[in-house]
Amino acid sequence: MARRPHGRQRDRRDRHPRGRAGRGRTALGRERQAGRSGTRRRPLLRGCPVAVRGHRADGVQDRLAPDGRLASAIGRRTRRISTTSQRSLTGRPEGHGYDSGVPLYKEQGVVLRSVKLGEADKIVTVMTQGSGKVRAVAKGIRKTTSRFGARLEPFTHVSLMVYRGRGSLDTVSQAEIVSPFRALRGDLGLFAAGETMLEAVDKVAEEHERNVRLFMLLLTGMRALDARPADPAAVAESFLLKLLSLSGFHPALTTCAVCGAPAPERFASGLGGAVCRADADLDAGPASLEALDFLATLGGTGLLEAGDVRADNEVRRESRALLFGFTEYHLERRMKSLPILARSLAT
Ligand SMILES: [Zn+2]
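That is the input. Now the predicted structure with zinc ion docked in place:
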């Protein structure tokens, strides 16, 4: 759970082509200009390395509640941000993630799941691009008049404005659909494959821990399914192989996980995948070369093409059993969606 509170700030500053001195001259120039014209200018906060919550020249801090959170000003300020302002509540440019130290942050992400909370609210879990997994309350979302509508349904790619909470729970302020991935809700095979992806990401993603590669993998997976592939389950299985590799659990498939010998004939999740007879333990089961080859091919094929990889039904069944066993073993908990995915297949 290591955090780099100001990593993005530092990156932004280092990338600035003119460096600090250059920006200093610009700021000085603006101050001089402001002095000549007699108007007061807001201080430039863009390069400031620490959080500056509550310090604004235009009086926003007067509307902060005693605990530092925004009180009555939230609605008005939010509307302004969405339409005209290029800066967030503390004067920073928008687009900073959870770690930027500001109470309101902007993110894009894919909704993993939502559960009911109380009479009218929901807690949504979102895999975001810059802030890892985020859990946030969507207030009033179950009322028919809710401004969120269907924007926070699972599978949806959304752009969010989120208030940082004190614990792990944040609050969604605004949500706009980037892509609804509507196809996934109208077809059982696509839905089951999509559910597998969402659940696997939910298992491996850490809250508020940036994981851009995992987010991009999920987004590509949603796009691949939305394109209605010939074999959605193969796309989901290719996705699981890539997710396992990203998470440090890449299964051995073409050589023995223990000694590296070619053409392994057994499979043991606890040993890291395929193993030779000499290295097989009591938990190792048989594995055909065809099934292992099929998994290796799926793992090496892009998600957008994985739905076209062909194999006969016997190989599909065997390889799926090996992969699901390996996935459950390494993601530790039983995944609810895998039996559903298996049932959704014609094979
Ligand atoms: Zn071996």
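Residues 19-37 form the longest helix (19 residues).
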